[in-house]
Amino acid sequence: MSFRRLSVAAILLIAFVGPMRAEESLVAYKSLSPELALDLARAALASCRSPGYQVAVAVVDRFGVTQVMLRDRFAGSHTPSTASGKAWTAASFKASTTELKAISQPGMMQSGIRNLPGAVVIGGGLIVEAGGSLVGAVGVSGAPGGDADEACARAGLDAVRDKLEF
After folding, report:
1. If both were cysteines, with which of 20, 71, 86, 92 could 125 make a disulfide (CB 3.0 to 4.6 Å apart)?
2. DSSP letter string over 118-157?
């Protein structure tokens, strides 16, 4: 009798655990469409052009892979890689590069962040969130200072904010 109960219990356990394991094997996530990433980059570029800044703008997906790169005609040759690095850094650490700059000063616990390959800890990289999920990041380089880069990135985000809310 106890063997029979054990067999029934095992069958029930497999029946309930099996489907849960299949669901746990896959992960669903939200991602920026290429069109929205381009709209974001164009808006950030336009924001920097207004005061006369020549910049590069990069938009990356949630994993830090570049979706869009725009470089204005006279932006420095270093700006595309710096913008991409800022966006990658923001996406990787799920924080703005300005926040990372503040917590990674020499002598601070997180100062090692600045030495990681590919990390660009200069203002101008912001995360992109939609519905409480990280969907990407934007990085701007070429304005006079990280605060100006960040203002352009923020203007780009503000321009597409209504498309991010759902």
Report:
1. 86
2. T---SS-EEEEEETTEEEEEEEEE-SSSHHHHHHHHHHHH
Produce one character per residue of 26-52: b if its CB has 16 or more CB atoms within 10 Å, e if not.
eeeeeebeeebbbbbbbbbbebbeeee
- Tokens read off for 35: 């069109």
Q: With 90 as the cut, is the pLDDT of residue 3 above it?
A: no
pTM here is: 0.84
Residue 49 to residue 72: CA distance in whole angstroms: 9
Residue ranges of domains in the chain: 34-164
Residue with tokens 């912001």: 126
- Token couple for 86: 């800022």
In this prediction, residue 83 has a pLDDT band, given cuts at 50, 70 and 90, of very high
Pick the CATH number of 34-164 from 3.20.20.30, 3.30.450.150, 3.90.550.10, 3.40.640.10: 3.30.450.150
Residue 107: count other Cβ atoms within 10 Å of its Cβ. 5
Residues 40, 69: Cα–Cα separation, whole Å = 11
